[in-house]
Design brief:
This protein has about 375 residues and is of the alpha/beta class. The protein folds into 2 domains: about 200 residues, Glycogen Phosphorylase B (Rossmann fold, 3-Layer(aba) Sandwich); about 160 residues, Glycogen Phosphorylase B (Rossmann fold, 3-Layer(aba) Sandwich), CATH 3.40.50. It is built from 14 helices and 13 strands. A 7-stranded parallel sheet has the order 3-2-1-4-5-6-7, with helices on both faces. Strands 10-9-8-11-12-13 form a 6-stranded parallel sheet, with helices on both faces.
């Protein structure tokens, strides 16, 4: 179907971009290159500056979410300025929320941590979960970026229709030649990337690191990410290392250049998460030629495959053993790097865009089989 009109939420492109923002940007660019889908950007925000061609829903996001959490009337395409939606074949909410409309809807869900742990979520995030539940109950189809997340959605939102389209690998910029963090220049270090939140399981990583420092006196641990809800627990685990606590570095949020330098200079990427919906750092490390040690939950086995040494997330001893192996066994290191170099190339944005365009077409023509479980979603996680 040439010229399929899709309302596309560009909200994640505004403000400090997270992994979701980078994903949405790459999806949009790939869809535009494909040429057979006409994207109509929209935004639910009164604060963000945007292009004149972008449709802005005439209500603040916070108020919209409060309304959509409890009802869907009136449909957004019946609001003043919302009539453009009636010309859409599909509305795609790219970040957990899609407005109530009379046209078919797709909503992207990247992980289900906040649905499983609503008691730990901030009020705005918990409200997003309620908006999502209402949209799915009203017939919105869910797009997930992994079969693991699809299984979780089916469990937590019974009766949901779910399609899985993997994301691609983000382009990794060439690293700067000079170390952007002076005290890491020439030092061997384990790298963890991501917000310092409970889902990342970083206190267990610090504990595992503590089991290595006795016979690896130069080894450092670098935690690169913005402050999150687990900072206090991570600092407590770090303080428990005693005099070795100064071998743990907190960088805060890093830009693309610093991130690239850290990846290209790390000895190992550690990714011990309690859950992941996709896991860009896995593909980043594979591009940089860095061995990966990770947990065996969520999407990690699906995305990482044989390019990752895995263990249960709560087992600090097993994590330490895998880290030691990846640090010291040259045969294992070479195998992981070689497998990673082949694996990250399997995840392309062109393939992602092609599959999403097919989802749009099937949704627009009300394909009754869209969203049925496939073999990947039915498979038991490794």
């Amino acid at each position: 179907m040439v010229g399929l009109n899709v309302g596309f939420d560009i909200g994640p492109l505004h403000g400090d971009k997270t992994g979701i923002g980078f994903a949405v940007e790459a999806i949009r660019d790939a869809l535009l290159r494909g040429g057979d889908v006409q994207l109509h950007d929209y935004l639910v925000s009164f604060r963000s500056r945007t292009e004149a061609t972008t449709h802005r829903l005439p209500i603040p996001a916070a108020l919209a979410h409060r309304l959509w959490a409890v009802g869907s009337w009136p449909a957004a395409d019946r609001w003043p300025g919302g009539q453009w939606m009636k010309e859409m074949s599909v509305m795609h909410g790219t970040n957990y929320v899609v407005p109530p409309t009379t046209v078919p809807r797709l909503v992207s869900v990247y992980d289900c941590w906040f649905l499983r742990h609503a008691d730990q979520a901030r009020p705005a995030v918990a409200r997003t979960g309620r908006v999502l539940r209402r949209a799915v109950a009203a017939g919105a189809v869910v797009h997930t970026s992994s079969h693991a997340t699809a299984r979780a959605v089916r469990e937590l939102l019974p009766g949901s229709r779910v399609v899985t389209v993997h994301l691609g690998a983000l382009a990794l910029p060439k690293p700067p030649t000079r170390a952007p963090i002076g005290d890491l220049d020439g030092a061997p270090f384990i790298l963890a990337l991501g917000t310092l939140e409970r889902r990342k399981n970083l206190p267990t990583l610090v504990q595992a690191f503590g089991r290595l420092i006795g016979d690896m006196p130069d080894l450092r641990l670098v935690l690169a990410g913005a402050a999150g809800d687990d900072r206090a627990a991570i600092e407590a685990a770090t303080d428990a290392l005693g005099t070795a606590s100064n071998r743990v570095s907190f960088t805060g949020r890093v830009d693309d250049q610093v991130r690239s330098w850290l990846l290209h200079n790390a000895e190992v990427l550690a990714y011990p998460s309690l859950d992941e919906g996709f896991g860009f750092p896995l593909l980043d490390a594979m591009q940089a030629g860095v061995p990966i040690v990770a947990s065996n939950v969520g999407s990690i086995p699906e995305i990482g495959g044989d390019a990752v040494l895995m263990c249960p997330p709560a087992d600090a001893s097993a994590l330490a053993a895998n880290l030691r192996c990846a640090l010291t066994d040259s045969t294992v290191r070479a195998r992981l790097v070689s497998a990673g170099d082949a694996r990250w190339r399997e995840f392309t944005w062109e393939q992602c865009a092609e599959q999403l365009a097919d989802v749009y077409r099937r949704l627009a023509r009300a394909d009754p089989t869209l969203g049925e479980p496939d073999r990947g979603e039915q498979a038991v996680a490794l």
